[in-house]
Amino acid sequence: MTISTRTLGTDSSLTVSALGLGCMGMSEFYGTPDPDAGLATIHRALDLGVTFLDTADMYGPFTNEELVGRAIAGRRDEVQLATKFGNMRGPNGERLGINGRPEYVRSACDASLQRLGVDHIDLYYQHRVDPNVPIEETVGAMAELVAAGKVRHLGLSEASAATIRRAHAVHPITAVETEYSLFSRDVEDSVLPALRELGIGLVPYSPLGRGILTGTMTAESVTGDGDARASAYFPRFQGEALEANLKLAARVTELAEARGCTPSQLALAWLLAQGEDIVPIPGTRRVKYLEENVVAASLELSPAELEALEEAVPRGAVVGERYGDMSSIDG
What is the mean pLDDT of residues 159-175? Predict the structure, then answer.
């Protein structure tokens, strides 16, 4: 089984697999890292046609890019490789703030190329918008990387509609990465309409609501053992909020059982049905979940099924903010 492709962007278009693979959790945030499992998952992804790989310099920090680089060695031509800069971290994992200064853009790109072991990045995102640096300056520096051949296409992550418009005026933006799922639909208000007006693709991260839409999560399964969801940084997974949100997820599970698929497949199929310009990047560290997710790309939902899903998880029903601190999200 292989999956189809989709095209991100029109002025600077990039054809990718209809589902990508988020590699972050292979190195950090969701429990103890297992590099061997990560390598096996990436290799299986490529075999299945999931060739759009997403990483960032901050994941690990730094080790996730190295892992992805090892995984694609000898198979670079098969891959559409996306990475990000801007969320600065130190070698011990300490967070050093957001940096969009041109000189940092250049040094971050060179460091990523070295860790990935490649001569170019297919899609280079600004991970978070730096409020202290005009977006025109940051994207101007990113455009220089395109001219130098180090980067093929540019992207932004968690940018507002206004910022996207300003950035796109400097250099064509191919894709914007932001959180989007049945559990997080704020992007529909202003960002998605702006993307469609400008001809920019949307790459949803956490398309399964950080695991809650898989149907496998319980109130006891979110622990503090290397799992960031147990921290106050993720309010949707705390106490009464988690209980309320698990009830919403249970409704998705019921609909999946009626359809004869898994909750993950149903949630991803809903997202894919929102437009051909949308390419979700579900993250996983396990081959079996990757294989499960891939099925979603061939799952066509009827209008009645799409409506039932939106009734099961109404906009505004999810309890808690996406992050405990939303200050880094460009508003």
Answer: 98
What length is written for the chain? Answer: 331
Q: Which of 30, 59, 180, 289 is catalytic?
A: 59
Distance CA 213, CA 229 (A): 14
pLDDT the model gives residue 146 = 98
Backbone angles phi, psi at 270, to 5 degrees: -60, -45
Other CB atoms closer than 10 Å to residue 73's CB: what's the count? 11
Longest dimension (CA), the chain: 54
Q: Is the peptide bond before 61 cis (omega within 30 degrees of 0)?
A: yes
Q: In the chain, helix, strand, coil percent, each to 5?
A: 45, 15, 40
Domains of the chain, by residue range, sit at 5-210+272-300
| Cβ–Cβ < 8 Å for 180, 173 | no
Q: β-strands 121-126, 151-157: how paired?
A: parallel
- What's the confidence (pLDDT) of residue 163? 98
* The token pair that represents 197 in the structure block: 């007006």
- Provide the H-helix boundaries in 2-151: 35-48, 63-72, 102-116, 135-147
Classified by CATH at the fold level, domain 5-210+272-300 comes out as: TIM Barrel (3.20.20)
Quick one: tokens of 14? 């990039």
Q: What is the pLDDT of residue 34?
A: 87
Is 59 labeled as catalytic in the residue annotation?
yes
Angle at 151 (CA atoms; ends 95, 273), nearest 5 degrees: 80
| Residue of 331, 7, 13 lying closest to 154 (CA atoms) | 13
